[in-house]
Write a structure and sequence with these properties.
Length: 257
């Protein structure tokens, strides 16, 4: 099997939600690694500011990931300028912190369209080119919110949980046929951002983990989930625990640092 690690690095990375927080930090870190980056965001002004900071290795693209036509146009623009992206990081998300009694069908579906629809739209736009090329790297930002939903987090928890299932579905459909299109979920942790918490992880620090994962191209990673800098292993049954102990086959989580 061909090693496409350098091909991945030499191509174009696309980061959604690039105008602020973790998305902006991911763009900075990718550029620092020598990667060409297209940053997608809803507002042109923050992207223009980031472009003036990062120089000609960064391409700002104003688009709303909730709008499939806008996403298709954005990726057409990127591909015309730089070819099919080799990396896609689906970072864009909203966390409205809204009590379920205050939700409306419109407000709930807005979260669905961004947090779930945005991931699908971007994957749908980039996958044909990756399939034609034979390799690619997709990372979907994830969370444990769906496991134990917090108060005022119904829309966020439901949509992020559904996005996790989307990752599994992509791997189920593509993994055997296109093993060099490597797809992961990554949980960056509670961040010190507008959407996060005041004493959270500095997004610049978290971005280093995310970029290490994005530049790590290995089919064995397909479908794996990483929590911050460590692989998250699904719980095993009691019988499996006994068997692992008897055979010494217990798997050690992979690390990004």
């Amino acid at each position: 099997m061909t090693d496409h690690s350098q091909d991945i690095r030499n191509g174009m990375a696309v980061v959604t939600g690039a105008g602020a927080g973790l998305g902006r930090a991911l763009c900075r870190q990718l550029v620092a690694e020598g990667v060409q980056v297209a940053g997608i965001g809803r507002r042109a002004e923050p992207l223009a500011e980031l472009a003036s900071e990062l120089g000609d290795r960064f391409r700002p693209v104003a688009a709303d990931v909730a709008d499939p036509a806008a996403v298709a146009a954005a990726f057409a623009q990127i591909e015309e300028a730089a070819g099919t992206p080799t990396i896609l990081i689906n970072n864009a998300a909203v966390y409205p912190r809204r009590d379920i009694l205050d939700e409306t069908p419109e407000s709930f579906m807005q979260s669905v369209n961004i947090n779930l629809g945005g991931v699908f739209h971007c994957c749908h736009a980039v996958l044909p080119g990756m399939v034609a090329r034979g390799y690619g790297r997709i990372i979907n930002l994830s969370t444990f919110a769906h496991v134990h939903p917090a108060p005022t987090a119904a829309a966020y928890s439901v949509t992020k949980g559904a996005a996790r299932i989307l990752t599994k579905s992509l791997v189920a459909d593509l993994g055997d046929r296109f093993p060099d299109i490597v797809i992961n979920d990554w949980i960056p942790g509670a961040l010190k951002t507008q959407m996060g918490i005041p004493d959270g992880i500095d997004p610049e620090d978290a971005a280093k983990w995310g970029v290490r994962l994005a530049l790590w191209h290995d089919p064995m990673l397909n479908g794996r989930m990483f929590d911050r800098d460590t692989e998250f292993l699904d719980p095993v049954s009691f019988k499996r625990k006994i068997l692992n102990r008897l055979t010494g086959q217990k798997r050690v989580p992979m690390r990004l640092s």
